[in-house]
Write a structure and sequence with these properties.
The complex is a heterodimer of chains A (693) and B (115). Chain A is an alpha+beta fold and 693 residues long. Chain A is built from 18 helices and 24 strands. The longest helix of chain A has 35 residues, at 658-692. The chains are: A alpha+beta (693), B mainly alpha (115).
Chain lengths: 693, 115
């Protein structure tokens, strides 16, 4: 009593920590898994493409309890015989062939096993990479189990243990080989399996310090576990590998396999918190039914490892029905199973509290125990607690094991939160509709029967108001706010207007003032259909009622009134193709015809020709050109400089921009100035000499 | 009266031609150059009148280059003409250097505006 009380208090504290958790439902393995497995693992032409896939399919069938099909079995046995018999098979193929044989138990001759054993022993002594160790040691363990050969031992088990252990990192992860510095959690799972195999294959006790160090590695590995809000724990790889990236499912299942196998062969507990093991089970179950064959295998295989492991066995609490009806007087039924659906050890299920969804106020009920029905293995409450009305709730359950020793073996996870919908009938009464004048009060008030078939007909003009009111209450007499309370008015021309009905407590009322709504109604006068919709997920009698007709008289629309949107005759036309848009591009400028342009180009050169001919006619000569060398050079440079500047301008027009031109012009200009000054001053001095002479 | 005016016009032209023959040849070269420039401008204007002024900046730069260089040549002629008392002390090479420089600047601007 005292123990369960203090346990209860501890769990209350744990619940407060998890109080913001979102509740989810985890279903153990069921028939839908079996049918999906049969679909996913259908081999092409009777046999799978590789022994690894064959093993995955057979192991999945084995766990799920599906009867093996003989045609797959014979093809698989054939493949196994070939692989084991050949001396050139790859190590990985040998390993998977042995695994398949472990399930199918084909007829294998002793000498075949001898050959494989010697090959694997040789590989173990020369192995360096993790995968080599894993396949060889794993294969040897399978042979030892199958042939029940008790004298099959590893030559230097401690040495092999040490070599595998040497590849571990300080954070609990493992490297694939000593050259590759990248470590991976998936590899850690493989390494633990390999280490467990080494322990089973050693003739004497492995040094306890090595085992202790491995247990520490496991604890450190669990430090890197990640979690979702709903209480699921999982492992994921931090870095994305160049080749296959192991997702969270394959990483988690690898660690679970390695962990359970290692715990099975070593004595002493691992001191792992059971909440994490339960969290791993929740993660694996929370996937539901995977659509991929490899994912299904990983899920099912790791759940099988968790089903009966020596660390802690997770127990899953679930409700077959999460929607309870007050009218049918449903009661709360709970089942507790292991992950694969087998029965749980003797325990009591307590309903710790019932809370309204979204609020963490005090529980609506006191803690109660559920009665256990041994025939159907169901825990049930006689009836729903009286204070539970229609709505969405969170029921909090707790499992208490009868045998105190079992608390070390099983993981119950403290408090489990399950969302429950409680549905029921909602009473609708005092429904009235009235047309009111602004100051005189109502002209006509009509009572509506919202359950019957009668309709009312009213008339109003734009100066009046329409009022609709009704009351909603639950069977317990509380106020109820439905998800939808909508009044819709539809004109004869199919133009619709919807309004939300406001509420205060149980009373729902809406007032439509037509004076303000005249524009919204597009000034359409005439007959309007009035329709009321009240609905909610937990309301069993949600309704959509045509209340009647309203003849509405609105004033004439002014000239600039908005037109009502065109009502489509056929709903399908709304999604039909729209008009095609033609784009108008800028019309290019009209250019004159090329021949005209070329003609005028020639014509422009005519004056130049005329100029040159005129020059000749005038008798120009180069007599004044200086004859002595230095001035002649300057004269030549002067003319060349001018030509260069003109060339520069031509280049400027063709491709350069102003800045490069100005830069070049600066240099050329300076040169030209200097040369020009020299030659012109020379000429000036000559002519002044002539003048004075 | 008509015959008298036509005879007068003929006499006028004749006297102009003989007077012109007396001008120094350097001035005649400059006159020829001015005529060439103006003629080029006229041809460009006629072209624009036919095809329209679409790249208006090109038309402007073409015409203004002709007109500009004509104006500069006229300035040169004024400065070089020996009969012009105002510019007696200015050496003609100086005027020519001015002419060349101004032309180069004008054509730089024209090339930029040509587009």
């Amino acid at each position: 009593m005292a123990r369960s009380l203090e346990g209860f208090l501890v769990l209350i504290v744990a619940a407060l920590i998890y109080s913001s958790a979102v509740a989810s439902v985890f279903q153990p393995i069921s028939d839908s898994h079996r049918s999906v497995a049969l679909e996913l693992f259908t081999p092409l032409e009777g046999s799978f493409s590789s022994l690894a896939e064959t093993y995955e399919a057979l192991r999945t069938f084995e766990v799920l309890g599906i009867d093996k099909k003989t045609d797959i079995n014979t093809a698989a046995c054939q493949s196994v015989l070939e692989t084991l018999g050949s001396s050139s098979s790859a190590l990985k193929d040998l390993f998977y062939a042995l695994k398949v044989n472990g399930i199918l138990k084909c007829e294998i001759k002793k000498d075949v096993f001898e050959g494989v054993t010697s090959r694997l022993q040789a590989t173990v002594s020369s192995a360096g990479a993790l995968l080599d160790f894993y396949y060889s040691v794993g294969g040897l363990v399978i042979i030892k189990d199958q042939t029940s050969k008790d004298d099959l031992y590893l030559a230097d088990a401690e040495g092999v243990f040490g070599s595998i252990k040497a590849l571990s990192q300080s954070d609990g992860r493992w490297r694939y080989n000593s050259n590759n510095p990248e470590s991976s959690t998936f590899a850690a799972g493989l390494a633990l399996e390999a280490l467990a195999a080494v322990v089973s294959l050693s003739s004497s006790e492995i040094d306890q310090s090595l085992i202790g160090a491995t247990k520490n590695d496991i604890l450190k590995l669990f430090d890197s576990i990640e979690k979702y809000d709903d209480g699921a724990f999982y492992f994921d790889e931090k870095l994305v590998d160049a080749h296959e990236h192991q997702g969270p499912l394959s990483t988690t299942s690898s660690v679970v396999r390695g962990l359970t196998v290692f715990a099975a062969v070593t004595s002493g507990s691992l001191n792992l918190p059971s909440a994490k093991i339960l969290g791993l089970a929740r993660f694996l179950l929370g996937i539901g039914i995977p659509g991929d064959a490899k994912d299904l295998f990983n899920q099912v295989d790791s759940l099988a490892s968790l089903e009966s492991n020596s660390v802690s066995i997770p127990l899953i609490l679930l409700l077959p029905a999460t929607v309870l009806s007050l009218t049918k007087k449903d009661s709360v039924k709970v089942k507790v199973n292991t992950v694969l659906g087998s029965n749980a050890p003797p325990l009591t299920v307590k309903l710790v509290g019932v809370f309204r969804s979204g609020s963490k106020d005090t529980s609506l009920v006191e803690g109660q125990e559920l009665k256990f029905n041994p025939e159907s293995a169901v825990y049930a409450l006689d009836a729903l607690p009286k204070s539970v009305d229609v709505g969405k709730y969170t029921f909090v359950f707790e499992m208490v094991l009868h045998d105190p020793d079992h608390s070390y073996l099983y993981a119950t996870g403290g408090q489990t939160q399950i969302p429950i919908f409680v549905t029921g009938l909602v009473k609708v009464d005092s429904a009235e509709i009235a047309v009111l004048d602004s100051d005189l009060g109502s002209t006509e008030t009509k009572k509506i029967d919202l359950t019957g078939e009668n309709t009312v007909s009213l008339s109003a003009n734009h100066l009046q108001k329409l009022r609709l009111s009704f009351q909603l209450s639950t069977s317990l007499g509380h106020a109820f706010k439905p998800h939808q309370a909508i009044l819709k008015l539809t004109h004869e021309s199919k133009v619709e207007h919807s309004f939300v009905v406001g509420s205060s407590g149980k009373h729902f009322e809406i007032n439509l003032d037509f004076l303000g709504l005249v524009e919204k109604f597009f000034y359409l006068s005439g007959k309007y259909n009035v329709q009321l919709t009240v609905g909610d997920a937990v309301m069993e009698n949600s309704f959509l009622k045509a209340i009647g007709h309203l003849d509405l008289d609105l004033p004439e629309p002014p000239e600039k009134a908005a037109q009502p949107p065109p009502q489509l005759l056929d709903q399908k036309l709304r999604y039909g193709p729209k008009a095609e848009i033609t784009h108008i591009f800028r019309v290019p400028e009209k250019l004159p015809p090329k021949e005209l342009s070329h003609a005028f180009l020639g014509l422009t050169l005519l004056p130049l020709l005329g100029f040159l001919i005129g020059l000749l006619h005038l008798g120009v000569n180069l007599k004044n050109f200086p004859s002595s060398s230095v001035p002649a050079m300057f004269a030549v440079l002067f003319h060349l400089g001018i030509a260069a500047v003109l060339l520069l301008y031509a280049l400027f027009w063709l491709k350069w921009d102003l800045f490069t031109t100005l830069k070049a012009l600066g240099f050329l200009g300076a040169f030209l100035m200097f040369v020009g000054h020299r030659i012109l001053s020379h000429l000036a001095s000559i002519s002044s000499k002539l003048k004075s002479a | 009266m008509g015959r008298a005016t036509s005879k007068d016009a003929q006499a006028l032209i004749h006297s102009l031609r003989s007077a012109y023959a007396a001008t120094p040849s350097s001035l005649k070269i400059i006159d020829l150059y001015v005529g060439f420039a103006v003629f080029s401008a006229i041809i460009q204007v006629v072209y624009m009148a036919i095809v329209g002024s679409f790249p208006f900046n090109s038309f402007l730069s073409g015409v203004l280059s002709c007109i500009g260089t004509a104006v500069l040549a006229v300035c040169l002629r004024i400065q070089v003409n020996k009969e012009n008392k105002e510019f007696k002390d200015l050496p003609s090479e100086h005027a020519f250097a001015d002419f060349v420089l101004c032309n180069l600047v004008l054509h730089l601007v024209i090339m930029n505006f040509l587009g």
